[in-house]
Amino acid sequence: MPLYKSITANSQTVVKIWKIEESYDDLIAPLDLKTESLSRVLGMKSELHQRGFLSVRHLLREFGYTDQDLFYDENGKPHLKDGKHISITHSFTFSGVIISDNEVGIDIEMQREKIAKIAKKFVEYEFEYLDTEAEDYINKLTVIWGIKESLYKLFATPGMLFREHFLVIPFSIKDEETVCWIDYNGLKKRYNSYFLEFEGFTCAYVIE
């Protein structure tokens, strides 16, 4: 089974990334899914989404959990029954899970040129330091999106907007980390964020 990468972010936080190479049948065969999870996966129209969903359950097994240990709240945020914090992502052929004693968020995105066309929808402050002509412009936009998506997953609060409420401090790709802020309804909070690139994808994660 292709566990692609395991990262110990700190003593309380681990990230695991899966490269989805197995067939749907091979992924589902060893899993013990809850009834609602089975209904959910069977209802997905795309096999890519099905395989992403199932690969996340394999990542749970890598952490020592099963599908039975996972549940979602009314905002769609995942939780573990033992009280540990979890965040989940999958994109095309990769999936990722982060588990921590602290609040966390994670996102994996494919690096694509078309992100530049929607940049104004999620970037405001960051345009002050971004160079639209730079060779790494698409990479940096993908990092910013991933960090803001991770923040959104961490809070899971309807009404938060990437462009207006989340800030990513200047960074270089080689540093693989930066600081980000949330500024929402009087709440101002600072977070550490980290990112890595692999095979045309970017994974970003945020830790409280």
Automatic annotation (TrEMBL):
Q: Which UniProt keywords apply?
A: Transferase
Q: Which GO MF term does the entry hold, naming one? A: transferase activity
The 4'-phosphopantetheinyl transferase domain covers: 104-178
- SUPFAM superfamilies, per the entry: 4'-phosphopantetheinyl transferase
Q: Name one Pfam family in it.
A: ACPS
Which range is the signal sequence, renumbered to this chain? none
Asked whether the UniProt record includes Transferase among its keywords, one would answer yes
Q: In its UniProt entry, what is this protein called?
A: 4'-phosphopantetheinyl transferase superfamily protein
